[in-house]
Fold Polynucleotide adenylyltransferase.
Amino acid sequence: MAKDPCAGLDVYRVGGAVRDAHLGWPVKDTDWVVVGATPEEMRQRGFRPVGRDFPVFLHPQTQEEYALARTERKSGHGYTGFVVYASPDVTLEEDLVRRDLTINAMAESMDGTLVDPFGGMVDLEARILRHVSPAFVEDPLRVLRTARFLARYAGLGFSVAASTMTLMSELAESGELSHLVAERVWAETERALSEPCPEQYFRTLDSCGALKVLMPELYEHEGLEPRLKRMHALPEALKDVASWRWGRLLETLSESQRADLGQRLRMPRAYRELIEQLAYTRQLANGGADTAQSIMTWMESVDAWRRGERVGPLLSVLALDHPELSASVGAAWQAASSLAPRELVEEGFSGSELGRELARRRLAAISRSL
């Protein structure tokens, strides 16, 4: 039997795994902290180093992450502006105090003994998201993380402590948020969009003043609340719910506003494209689809001829507010998409003439369906 590489090490399960296990929430990943060890000792035991900024190792069998206990000292702006100190003399409590929220600053020994120096279990039972220490303000990413945790746990009755909201407001006013790299802002936002209560993410950022710094476009035209209401109005059958929620949030923005926000957040292409499709669909609803040409233009705008799989989901969203219009456009799509280019080729059409004739017949088919 292979020797346990953790034998003799002072190892603790930490953070989210402890929190979620006590909440009865699914535990997806388990992180561990090792106290009193050196990088050399970890490598000798078969752990593989993977940490770039601090000592993190993968267990040779489970591939779970084991980090050496460490402290952090603020040295610059943003979430990367820290000096990390990892040494065998760093205690478990010193490692835990650098964490963001008390419910994330608990640990368990290998025998299951709870180590909770900052009252995380009390806050867990009281359903409170509370900062561990005043050092919370040293990392602006914690504003987004706290909002994301509320998006996850609001359904369980969680709220953000008033004192923590005060610190989040101070961070929003300090200018530190502007030093966050776009990829981290987007990563937290995308994760929040997949949580059970994503509206709480945006409302929390709004309450502390962070949203107007990071995403001022969300206040344009109709304000935030109508967007959040629409974000929840989605057909149950839709896949990739995060992208659809984001698209519904942004679909009323102007083209330039969508472009500005997308560029600033380094938004993935798939998200950008879906926002455009939803924007075109809203324009169809607002402008009326009583002419064949308007429906034809919509189909071309969403690239329906090449990406026919887009049409059904978009029409299901349209049906939420405009069921008759969705049915009419659906019938038009069935009529137009039934025309096969190869039939025109067999009739002798080719090149640009083929394209023009196909468009003419599609338009005629749409017109007959209305």
Remarks:
- The first helix runs from residue 16 to 23.
- The mean pLDDT is 92.
- The CA atoms of residues 133 and 148 lie 19 Å apart.
- The chain has 18 helices and eleven strands.
